[in-house]
Design goal:
It is built from two helices and nine strands, in the order E-H-E-E-E-E-H-E-E-E-E. With about 170 residues, it is mostly beta strands. It starts with 10 loop residues before the first strand and ends with a strand.
């Protein structure tokens, strides 16, 4: 599969909850169940997942080139858009803070997993899967353009990412 060219129609995106015993997992599970997001989330478009590492060079005195490249802090983040607004993404960002009035002065922000699977119909036994763990949305944008579809977009941060290829 490393040499295959895949399209968005080959992708399946689902949301899952890793630990429903935590307040964040419980809040996410309620939204995922209410909006049936554990099945295919087919309306998300332009999904991007980014991983960056704060690599720092170490220079010894008198040397022009670094002697070591030291790994630093990892940051997992991403974005997604969609042309369908039903409140699920806002609820995944704010939890109970998205209802008026909120259930209390403090509330848990939902935390969930984002699972992206790519399968080529010509090779049904092969699959590529990227799982982003501990996702929390950190921004939500609602756009009403004058000549196109109403769009909402989100950005997120996550704890870690895993890649699997079969």
């Amino acid at each position: 599969m490393p040499n295959d060219v895949l399209r968005a129609t080959d992708a399946v995106l689902v949301l899952g909850v890793e630990d429903t015993s935590t307040p964040e997992g419980e809040a996410a599970d309620a939204v995922v169940s209410q909006y049936d997001l554990s099945n295919v989330v087919g309306r998300l478009t332009n999904v991007s997942i980014s991983v960056s590492s704060d690599v720092r060079p170490f220079y010894e005195i008198g040397r022009r080139y670094p002697t070591h490249l030291r790994p630093g802090i990892l940051r997992v983040s991403g974005t997604a858009e969609r042309a369908h607004v039903n409140g699920a993404l806002l609820r995944l960002l704010l939890g109970d803070g998205s209802v008026s009035p909120p259930s209390g002065p403090s509330f848990a922000q939902p935390s969930f997993n984002l699972i992206s699977t790519l399968k080529d119909p010509a090779h049904p036994s092969q699959m590529t899967k990227v799982t982003v763990f501990g996702v929390k949305f950190d921004s939500w944008t609602y756009r009403i353009p004058s000549d196109a579809f109403v769009m909402e977009a989100i950005t997120f941060q996550a704890m870690r990412v895993a890649y699997e290829e079969t």
